[in-house]
Design a protein that fits this description.
- It is built from eight helices and ten strands.
- The strands form three sheets. A six-stranded antiparallel β-sheet has the order 1-2-3-4-7-6, covered by helices on one side. Strands 5-8 form a two-stranded antiparallel sheet. Strands 9-10 form a two-stranded antiparallel sheet.
- Helix 7 packs antiparallel against helix 8.
- The relative contact order is 0.06.
- About 5% of the residues have low confidence.
Length: about 325
Amino acid sequence: MSLIQFWNQALQKYTNKNEVKIQIDEAAITYPDLFTKISPFRLTNGMVENYISLIGEIVLKQPNDNVRVPIGIYLFNSYPQQAPSVYLLPKQGIHTIKTGNPFIKGRSTIVIPYLMNWKPLDNNLTDLIQNLINLFSRNPPIVVVKKETSSLNYNQNNNFKQMETTKPKTKKELLIEKIKKRLIELNEENEKIIEELSSEQLQLEKNEESISSGIQSLQLQTNNYNILSEKVETQDKILSEWLETNKSQSLENINLDEILMPIDILSKQMLELSAKGCAIDDTGYYLNKLLQNGTISTSDYLKKIRSLSSEEFITIELAGKVYRTQKQALSIFY
């Protein structure tokens, strides 16, 4: 499994993928004896889930000898919103957990103030590990019964492997390991940059398509506006010529019904419906006058009013449909 595949699989369920990756990388570089794994974790309800974890050893600062404490840090899916869980991982026959340590709860759960006062924006893995080292250096939580004969070494292909150490490593070997580790980190960084650039390229292509579509839409609207502008100019020219021709005539000689004529079926229908609505209103007005004067009876008045109301309702509904149809027809120009 490649490093990219490993991280894609590990971060799949996490909400803050980038933040988890950054903090894990920083902690692994600062404390090279802690290694990244996908480890099973048993929840309080008995279910077992796999989480990203840092498994390995922290080195305590002791006056006579450095004590290595094996721990496991488990990051839940909502990390860093939720504080991680930290445990002692003593090895059978090698370590014994000391009793009476105030920071050890139950068999191996580590509870320190830094975890209890966890704030997502202020706290991180590197500072958490440093707090563990500082507290446990004063009061180590374990006793080393027997020194180990093996240590953990990072392997790029399998992520981690255990290998035996028969003698201390020379400065040259340590330098080579450090160089290899740095090359691996640089390779990861380059792969991440390439992925980000590829993602940006795809986004740029999508933006280009969106801009092209927007330009075509603007061109279509421009053409429609030009057509409308030409029509307005033509009508304005016709109106100006008519006014010039008839400016000397008296208004009494001008027949408005001949001047204001609808040019399409919908406009003609709307004009007729408007006239009909006005006629219904006028009829209602005069019926009220007749009723007040006692010219017609109340029963005849109510019959006529009911008939007019029905006719007015039909007229208003039909006018509304005509208006909506006209509006829809005009929308193609906007």
